[in-house]
Amino acid sequence: MKISRFMLLTVAAFCFGLQGLGHAQATTSCPAGTYDMLDWMTLDNNLRPGLHMAGNANPLYTEMMSGKFYWTKGGKGYPWDIQLVDKNFIYLWITEYAWNSPNTYKKFTYNTNMPFAPRCAKVGSPGSTIKIPDTTYDLYTDCKHFTRHTLKKAINEVWGPYQVSLGGMLPNNLQTLVVSYRYNCDSTYQNCSDKEDFWVAKQYGLVQWIHYSLKNGAYKFQQKTVYNTLKSGGTTPYFQCF
After folding, report:
1. Secondary-structure breakdown of the chain: helix, strand, coil percentages, each rounded to the nearest 5
2. Is this prediction's pTM over 0.85?
3. Which helix (H) or strand (E) holds 153?
4. Cα–Cα dist 177/39, whole Å
5. What is the distance between the alpha carbons of residues 204 and 197, in angstroms, rounded to a whole number?
6. Confidence check: pLDDT of 17 > 70
7. 106 vs 94: CA distance, rounded Å
8. What percent of the chain has pLDDT over 70?
9. Which of the four pLDDT bands, split at 50, 70 and 90, describes residue 166?
10. Could you tell me the CA-to-CA distances from 171 to 33, 35, 89, 199, 228 in Å, in that order?
């Protein structure tokens, strides 16, 4: 891919911590003391057309569409996480099932039954908290055939802001928010078998993801992906089922 002079200057600016070329842009007007989570979860619109985030695992491309956005995890346009967006919430909606098969996926059954974070979230320790009683989702083995499942109860929280240094091209002491997604919880929302932490930052979107499992009353680390580098190249999401 031919890289434009603008792209090269933009990458260089991020390398040296000069953030003037890629300001995050507000996408809605949030009340004082709250954060527009769409602005924190997505790569800045100055950068999306020709750049993406990369790190220690798969790449991450951001694509905004009406009422939703994609985190695409491969240059072929899949796999992906697809989130729905309205004025009230950002919702987890669709994720891949088989990594290399774009016509298999998991979708929350009622589309908006998994609110991930308020659109305008309060932060703190934690700030905004959402309890989800119905986590029903459908697992599609092709575009038409599915089985129905559940993640029991779930609870999503927004924590922060925190300052972290993730290396790569990211500035040190980067201000981040953490959306904590706990699922497979009991009826009291106290004991949740799984926890995923999504670390998000203005301009960059998702910069770190960590999965933990509950064992003997404590969360044990399972997997981590860091997105700390801007690279050239874009992709178009490929989702053929609908």
Report:
1. 10, 50, 45
2. yes
3. strand 153-164
4. 11
5. 16
6. no
7. 6
8. 89
9. very high
10. 24, 21, 29, 15, 9
Q: What is the pLDDT of residues 107-123, one digit of tens each?
A: 999 999 999 999 999 99
Per the listing, tokens 């599915």 go with 146
Q: Do 11 and 54 form a contact (C-beta atoms < 8 A)?
A: no
Distances (CA, A) of 50 to 20, 44, 169, 176: 18, 11, 17, 24
SS3 159: strand
pLDDT of residue 27: 65
Quote the tokens at residue 30.
């949030």
Token couple for 82 = 């697809």
Give, in order, the Cα–Cα distances in Å from 30 to each of 35, 65, 123, 224: 7, 21, 13, 31
Query: Which single residue is written with the structure tokens 């999965």?
Result: 211
Which alpha helices (DSSP H) does the chain contain, by range? 5-15, 37-41
